[in-house]
Amino acid sequence: MIGSDSTDPMVALTDRGLAYGDGLFETVLVRDGTPLLWNEHCARLIHGAHRLGFEPPSRGWLDALPEKAPRGEHVLKVVLTRGSGGRGYRPPDPAEPRCYWQFTPFTPMPERWEQGVSVRLCHLRLGRQPALAGLKHLNRLENVLARQEWHDDAIAEGIILNDRDQLVEATAMNLAWFDQGQWWTPELIECGVEGTLRRALIDQGHLSIAGAEDASLSRFLNARSTCLFNSVQGLWPIVRCFDAQHQHVSGQWLIDDSVRRLQDGAHALLGYPSNLPTS
């Protein structure tokens, strides 16, 4: 494993991560040297490397990275590529992977936890590719194009559907809706990123997986409550969703107890404060 931290940021032009998006990345919340949801992040990175067909770093090698963090709250970004070599798209065999990492100071946005956010529907549709579904791979051009659709800071996120108009995710977060007494999130077997907070919430029984036929936009817009979440920002309740033209409100929700309960479960995993009312 060839490693390079933020003090040595040079990336070779021959690196396949740069040339082809041939690699993976993780963004990890680190507080005073302690990484949150670290087991989930390591598992996703190692699983992703096996899926792409090259050797991942050892768990021991990865465990040493958060120890380098400064005090305070930071985001650790880890980028793992197949390295250089091969001929054109043909990968080298064996590969000599490279891993880059960097710590960036981070401040969460508690006003979004408390007051909720407005979102919009995106024009862009995600293509379905089961071989890459769930992975946080480096080729994120679809997400870049979707995020390019708006410049209004009052819109926190964009909701992305697949080419069958089924719910998948937001540009940088997973999503969920409350219906029939439980929280649902789309299955991600054809496209989308399986977030680490999403995985933990499913494992703890807070979220259920909705099949493709149940992940329709109408179910989302007609749900009692909706939200967005990831392992860095925590959980943002959605209070308003605009259409793709940003001219009409397609959905509107109150922040009720169901949202606060899910938020409490999510924030407990990240060490963020609860917003549940105290009696």
Description of the molecule:
- This protein is α/β, with parallel strands linked by helices.
- It folds into two domains: 2-105, Aminotransferase class 4, branched-chain amino acid transferase, N-terminal domain (D-amino Acid Aminotransferase, Chain A, domain 1, 2-Layer Sandwich), CATH 3.30.470.10; 110-270, D-amino Acid Aminotransferase, subunit A, domain 2 (D-amino Acid Aminotransferase, Chain A, domain 2), CATH 3.20.10.10.
- It contains eight helices and 14 strands.
- It has helices at 16-20, 38-52, 59-63, 110-115, 141-147, 196-203, 217-221, 257-270; strands at 2-4, 23-31, 34-35, 73-81, 98-105, 117-126, 155-162, 167-170, 174-179, 182-186, 208-210, 225-230, 234-242, 249-252.
- The strands form two sheets. Strands 6, 7, 8, 9, 10, 11, 12, 13 and 14 form a nine-stranded mixed sheet that branches. The chain has a five-stranded mixed sheet with strand order 1-5-4-2-3.
- A hairpin with a 2-residue loop joins strand 9 (174-179) and strand 10.
- The N and C termini lie far apart (53 Å).
- The model has no long low-confidence stretch (mean pLDDT 94).
